[in-house]
Amino acid sequence: MARNSPNNLPENKPNIRERLKALANLPAFLKEVYQTSPSLTIGNTLLRLLRSLMPVSSLYVAKLIIDEVILQVSNTPKDFHHLYLLIGAEFALAIIGDLLARGISLTDSLLGDLFANRTSVQLMKHAASLDLAQFEDATFYDKLERARQQTAGRTILLSQTLAQGQDAITMGLLLVGLIAFNPWLILLLLVAVIPSFLGELHFNAKSYSLQYGWTPQRRELDYYRFIGASDDTAKEVKLFGLSDFLIDRFQTLSIQYFKENRKLSIERASWGSLLLAIGTLGYFAAYGIIIFQTVNGAVTIGSLTFLAGSFRQLRALLEGILGRFNSISQGALYLNDLFEFYKIEPKITSPVLARPFPKEIKEGFRFENVGFKYPNSDKWANRHLNFTLKVGEKLALVGENGAGKTTLVKLLGRLYDPDEGTIYLDGFDLKEYNLSELRERIGVIFQDFQRFQFTAGDNIAVGDISRREVLPELQRAAHQSLADTVIEKLPLNYEQPLGKRFAKGVELSGGEWQKVALARAYLREADVLILDEPTAALDARAEYEVFKRFAELTKGKTAILISHRFSTVRMADRILVLDKGQVLEIGTHQELLAQNGRYAELFNLQAEGYR
Ligand SMILES: Nc1ncnc2c1ncn2[C@@H]1O[C@H](COP(=O)(O)OP(=O)(O)OP(=O)(O)O)[C@@H](O)[C@H]1O
Q1: Which residue range(s) make up the domain with 390?
Q2: Structure confidence at residue 129 as a pLDDT band (50, 70, 90)
Q3: Residues 486, 515 contacting (CB under 8 angstroms)
Q4: pTM here?
Q5: What is the number of domains present in the chain?
Q6: Which of 105, 173, 274, 394 has a CA between 20 and 30 Å from the CA of residue 435?
């Protein structure tokens, strides 16, 4: 796992220009929000517009009330009619303001939830379109991780961006009143707010850079958390007594992170208090000026309350706006990660004018000098592969661990493309064919097949998800792979949840799982079947049965079989012996025995073991 030393963080301290540049993400972001739910977005905007008028209206009515009270104090006879009206208006404004605030927070949270769901779906869709190789790259995972964080975090960005607009309107209205009275107060207001804004900006940049630099470690922490407490790992963690080791690793790393974060938080709090004090000083200076002018009779007492109230609110609003600007621009920086993730393009794709996959394969596959290195690896996993796989032929791949058997199969399914040479199908480069058709027509069961925590039926249906509802098809496939006897014994049969993760789940044995996985290949009715050690976990009788059936069921079909058991391998039409990624021998069982090379040696070695 990629691991940056926390003291050696990647240089990523976004400066103010980068933060402003990141704000350019906001229109695209708001567009996505609008697309999530046009009605909620419009509703929320309207509510906010109305709410933005409230503070100034309420302050103004309060001013009128005070001036009216003072008038009535010296008035005889007294006339309360006007006063009642004003109090009624203030009351109505308070009620409407509360209702609007409720409406805003309701639409905010609904919109936020919908937006988080939509982003999750988009992330899953995009991740599914990417190459396997991209998933094996640690920096890709870091990007994915940061993008994933966007789904929840961005709902806050959403309400903040909208609140920003609302407060800007309120502020504009309050400013009009303030400017009419004394434009110099605005200057005082800026002095009161700008220092703490700049402080916040600085510390937010530092915080983002800390978070950014720690992405790999946070991923590592998540991993420890997961393997320390998960059903998948519990068995080994217990038997090997790993929990102290895992907790220790988790703690070391998390304390390191805590310390870095604490340092920053303390710095931020100290500076924040100091800068805020400057702001308070500015506020009181303005307050003093207004009081002085009232005493001198330049403004009424009602105006004093209006102006003092406006000033107090303005300061709070401005602080809010500037503070929010910080988190919005920080949020916009995170949006960079999300949009950057969306920009990652798969390299393995269908050509624009893709050749349709042949209805019936005529000749078969031909490997011509095929070589492949895994990304981030200097070693050739396959090299100089030259052989043919004829249509209808059953080819067995043998070779020691790491010889390149699984890799060869992955190349055939275009999970990777060769770095050298070409794989031809019926005379055309495999890359020319429609990719999804190619994958549809190839059925592969890998040795590390997934044990999905779904029902037994769904576990078979993943072989061809379009037939998920067609029970007879699932039953047929289960019968062919010997999974039927396993499923019949389950209390809920095809509806039985498998695995222990969810309620009512039943765990299967390794061999039973393998039979279920094998049924996926039969469900698919692919033209090319690839079984990568499909019988490793099967008992001897089941293995014999599986192969007898395999031979019958795949008559006329092209198949590749990977196995370390020579009793299985010898049933194939031809056998390809791989060594260090290269073809060492190829031929029928008899031919290879006669050759007396590696195959004969390994075959005899295993046969010897059984005598
Ligand atoms: N995802 C990967 N990234 C980098 N290297 C890999 C990856 N998968 C396999 N390799 C390397 O490629 C080589 C071939 O691996 P492959 O899985 O094809 O072997 P195999 O013949 O199927 O082995 P086994 O019999 O153990 O299943 C090995 O040296 C392995 O370390």
Answers
A1: 364-610
A2: confident
A3: yes
A4: 0.72
A5: 2
A6: 394
